[in-house]
Specification:
This protein is α/β, with parallel strands linked by helices and 387 residues long. Helices cover 34% and strands 16% of the residues. Helix 9 links the parallel strand 11 and strand 12.
């Protein structure tokens, strides 16, 4: 069938981008004719089925709508696959697709009110964690009939093998962190407090970071140099070679959907030491045992839980690593696309429930303001609808 994928960015190295790139590589092999449209990318792609609207922070909702109107020809006769459903509240009428499907990759603090403004715009939603399924069920009850809200397991490239690790009693425990070194969402300014808690608990540790970003210089000044390694960005075999040497992976984020980096680490037998922030990652860590999770931002508790784990017999830790790896067996690319294709066909076969003729958007003064400014002074105004 014809698919039109819509999202904000393509060239970034985020988790959503990795999924969209998988679609770009394999949709045609599964007999889909796919187009890809990205709002904040310039239209400088060399491939005919990828295009960008060139939106920036100075664009208003009004000018974004005009830019999308020039690409509306991508949608007739297609299924619009709206990743994280960004902008649907003010763009859906310009997407004359035969069905609109959302894929919810992320959780964030205002997700519930955001979803409630999507009423009547979607025919189905795929969610990457059970927690997100629960949130969508509560926020969009019209989709609960006919199984229009379903779980889809994130695909990962599993680690080539689980390495043999030296017993922890003979060496420092290696704790890793993966992501963009930034304060927004990732909250890396919390890392010094976490490491101080490890120090205060007299844990012999080494902390390693995979990723890059604007906070790298600050972190280099704040984290103990004798215990910290910055690996920068890595990919492929280099990525897994670094990751596989870790004992634990941790996070200090405000929110996550289901961290792909966590799944990749689990596949290599790296154990989680994760805060409970209501993400899909909580569920995976808790399956391994209560000591693998800690109350968000309670850094002393994180250190205490780690000490309890380090007291475990090596055989018990080895079994936990095997269990961690086994948790990721359902996260294959083939299983992801099986669920995606089955769900998409199901939604096309079911009666349409999204509004086919959306009333023309009324004039709002706020639609003339720069979108970047709106997100700071009145975020709710970015997603208002006919009211």
């Amino acid at each position: 069938m014809r698919l039109t994928h819509f999202f904000t960015y393509f060239r970034n190295l985020g988790g959503v981008q990795s999924i969209i790139k998988r679609h770009h590589r394999s949709d045609s092999s599964r007999e889909h004719n796919s187009s890809f449209l990205f709002s904040f990318e310039p239209n400088t792609f060399n491939e005919p089925n990828i295009s960008g609207l060139g939106v920036n922070g100075w664009d208003s909702i009004s000018s974004i709508r005009k830019k999308l109107a020039n690409k509306s020809n991508l949608f007739p006769g297609s299924v619009a696959v709206c990743h994280n459903m960004w902008g649907l509240q003010f763009l859906a009428e310009l997407m004359p697709a035969k069905r609109r499907i959302g894929i919810l990759h992320s959780d964030w603090t205002t997700l519930r009110p955001f979803l409630q403004t999507q009423k009547g715009l979607l025919d189905g939603v795929l969610c990457v964690s059970n927690k997100l399924v629960e949130i969508v069920n509560e926020s969009l009850p019209e989709l609960t009939k006919d199984n229009r809200i379903q779980l889809i397991h994130y695909p990962i490239d599993e680690a080539p093998s689980m390495p043999n690790r030296m017993p922890l009693v003979r060496r420092p425990v290696i704790i890793g962190w993966i992501g963009r070194l930034q304060e927004e969402q990732k909250r890396v300014k919390r890392l010094p407090s976490l490491l101080k808690a490890f120090e205060d608990a007299q844990i012999d540790y080494r902390f390693e970071l995979l990723g890059d970003g604007p906070m790298k210089g600050w972190l280099e000044q704040q984290l103990p140099a004798n215990r910290t390694i910055f690996h920068g960005r890595k990919s492929g075999d280099d990525y897994y070679s670094t990751l596989s040497k870790w004992d634990f992976i941790t996070s200090v984020s405000d929110y996550e959907g289901l961290p792909i980096s966590m799944l990749e680490a689990l596949s290599a037998g790296v154990l989680p030491l994760y805060p409970t922030i209501g993400s899909g990652g909580d569920e995976y860590a808790e399956k391994l045992g209560k000591n693998f999770i800690w109350e968000a931002f309670e850094f002393e508790q994180a250190a205490s839980k780690l000490n309890l784990l380090l007291e475990q017999p090596e055989a018990k830790l080895h079994q936990a690593r095997l269990n961690a790896s086994n948790l990721t067996t359902q996260h294959s690319e083939s299983e992801y696309f099986r669920v995606f294709d089955t769900f998409t066909n199901q939604i096309v076969d079911l009666p349409r429930i999204s509004d086919e003729r959306i009333p023309k958007r009324p004039f709002y003064f706020s639609d003339q303001l720069p979108f970047g400014l709106m997100t700071r002074i009145w975020p709710k105004g970015c997603f208002r609808r006919n009211d």
